[in-house]
Amino acid sequence: MSEQHNVVLLTFPDAGAWRPAFDEAQRLPGLRMVAAMERSADGLLEVKDTFTRGAGLTTVGSGALGGLIGLLGGPVGVLLGFAAGAVIGNAAEEHQASEGGAGLILLSPRVPDGGALLALEVRESAPGPADELAARHGASVERIDAHDFTEQVRAAEKRAEQQSADEDTS
Questions:
Q1: Cα–Cα distance between 32 and 103 in angstroms, integer?
Q2: DSSP symbol at 14
Q3: How many secondary structure helices (H) and strands (E) does the chain include?
Q4: What one-character DSSP code corresponds to residue 39?
Q5: Hey, which of 24, 85, 130, 161 would disulfide with 63, CB 3.0 to 4.6 Å?
């Protein structure tokens, strides 16, 4: 079976039930990111926790590559190369984090009052592991193709930018 790149949503009717599932989700095969959102009974939404597999690797890897290239310039070149590479890598990671935040905003209406939602970005070769995780913790499961979800986020961002531009010209 080929891999599917999905956003898997685990919805919990009880706000306190997400933590054990969050901890287990970090060990799912193909997991790239998981975020937990909780809504109080009075409707207040809060992002409770996030986990990104490999966070920081892009920054460190870019810095190391920059440092290697900087070897051509001597000790100062290594320092400058590492710093420049780290800045570029960090910018890439910040962009990914920004996109993730926009995705959570788009998912926020799906968090039930008094409940919680785990959003997992995962490359799945089979739905079994995430489905079993949900079953063990009493959560319902919904899958969205990651490409489709990215398009939904971009469309929402574009609408928000257009609305902001319209308000600025009013």
A1: 14
A2: S
A3: 5, 5
A4: E
A5: 85
Tokens of residue 75, six digits: 């000790």
Picking from 117, 102, 143, the residue whose alpha carbon sits closest to that of residue 6 is 143
Is residue 18 within a helix (H) or strand (E), and if so which, with residue range?
helix 18-25
The domain limits of the chain are 4-169
* Entry pTM: 0.67
Residue linked to tokens 């489905």:
131
Please tell me the predicted confidence (pLDDT) of residue 88.
57
Q: What distance in Å separates the CA atoms of residue 26 and residue 46, rounded to the nearest whole number?
A: 20
Counting Cα atoms < 13 Å in the Cβ hemisphere of 103 gives: 27
Structure-token pair, residue 51:
């986990």
**How big is the chain by its Cα radius of gyration, in Å?**
20
